[in-house]
Amino acid sequence: MLRTRVCSFAATVLLAGCALAAPPPANVPGDDAAEIVETLLAIDPARHATPLAAMHGRAALYQRWHEAARSGSATGWRVWLLLAQAALVHVDAATSEAFQADLLPAFKAQPQVALQALADNGWLLPVTCWHLGRHFDAEGRGGAGRADFLAAHEATLQRSLPAAAAAACLAQVRQPRRP
Amino acid sequence: MADNRFTIDVLRKSSDGILTFRNGNIDISTTCWWDPDVVIDAGSYVGYATRMANKADGTDGGKREAIWLGKGVPYNSGAGKSNGIFIHKGTGPSWSDGCIVLRSELVFQMWTSIQPKETANIVVNVSDETVRRGVVVPYRCNVADWF
Questions:
Q1: Alpha-carbon gap, residue B41 to A130, rounded angstroms
Q2: Phi-psi sector, B43: left (phi>0), alpha (psi -120 to 50), beta
Q3: Chain A partners of B71 at a C-beta cutoff of 8 Å?
Q4: CB-CB: which of A63, A138, A141 is closest to B54?
Q5: What span, in angstroms and rounded, lies between the C-alpha atoms of A87 and B51?
Q6: Contacts of B116 in chain A (CB under 8 A)
Q7: Looking at CB atoms within 10 Å, which of A18, A76, A122, A160 has the fewest?
């Protein structure tokens, strides 16, 4: 009896947890898509009333798509990498600094989803690989971990990307140069 | 818009600078750094005390404390304008991708004293040092000319 109750309670908790966790998006919601296009084109995002709200909105957009990427969503990875592109081309320093911290751990956790996104979107590769490479120098890391990363992932990159793309990406990881 | 009650001055030298902030008994004058590849243009900007939502390493355990310099900050001699420039913690240029960074405890001290938060109540003045050293050397200043 007690065992049944415990199992029932555990199942309830698990189901509640599943209900609370947002599923990874299969598509890009329209208002996020609009904000991304507006950001890329340096248009004030219509969904935010003030520049301060837009700044916080950009951070929230980053968080949503970072979470989507971390959940393993292929769409999540592509949109998140597009935000990295937008941050670099518009010198959104805070967002680039966030990518330099967050991209490498996410990549190491799910290299295949990330690399498939890059294989299908080669134009995202220079900025993505620059952010990956910058991780090792940013925030005083002084290059720590770069050699280990290359030892662990160089062959995977070479298998997953066209040869020229893999070489360009590895060069950015070894010695990042702002694209 | 609220009054600009607080002033942060940044005087840049060649590779680092001095950030100055005074408020009540707080008197900060400290070294600051930035990314040499992305340098905001000298000028006055309206700042907001806020937090960087994507950095979880705030001195008080929350998100990172920072001063946002507002929308449309010009950089690299007008090459473009950025909406993502902050003053935040850091110990050297590697902490910056265009932001101005200084020691965390001083950012926190400055940030804590600025009230209210999320308000356009700070003027951030960024200027570049003009260096003039020694005297103008006259033409034909040569020891051989003295004899």
A1: 24
A2: left
A3: 51, 54-55
A4: A63
A5: 18
A6: none
A7: A18
Q: Which residues contact B138 (CB under 8 A, 6 or more apart)?
A: none
Cβ count within 10 A of residue A38: 17
pTM of the prediction? 0.87
Q: Is the backbone of residue A17 left (phi > 0), alpha (psi -120 to 50) or beta? A: alpha
Longest dimension (CA), chain A: 65
DSSP labels, B83-146: S--EEEE-SSGGG-SS-EEE-HHHHHHHHHHS-SSSSEEEEEEEEEPPP--S-PPPTT--GGGG
**Tens digits of residue pLDDT in A28-44:** 999 999 999 999 999 99
Minimum distance, in Å, between the CA of residue A160 and any CA atom of chain B: 29
- Find the residue in A nearest to B117 (Cα): A52
Q: What is the pLDDT along chain B (147 residues), one digit of tens a residue?
A: 445 599 999 999 999 999 999 999 999 999 999 999 999 999 999 999 999 999 999 999 999 999 999 999 999 999 999 999 999 999 999 999 999 999 999 999 999 999 999 999 999 999 999 867 777 666 655 555 555
Which chain B positions have a beta carbon within 8 Å of A56's beta carbon?
A: 50, 53
Range B54-72 burial, b when 16+ CB lie within 10 A, else e: bbeebbeeebbbbbbbbbe
Query: What residue type is B18 in one-letter code?
Result: I
Shortest alpha-carbon distance between residue B146 and chain A (Å): 52
Asked whether residue A105 carries a pLDDT value surpassing 60, the answer given is yes
- Look up the CATH number of domain B6-130: 2.40.440
* Residues in B lying within 8 Å of A, measured between beta carbons: 35, 37-38, 48, 50, 52-55, 66, 68, 70-71, 75, 80-86, 90-92, 94-99, 118, 120
Closest CB to B54 among A90, A98, A140: A98
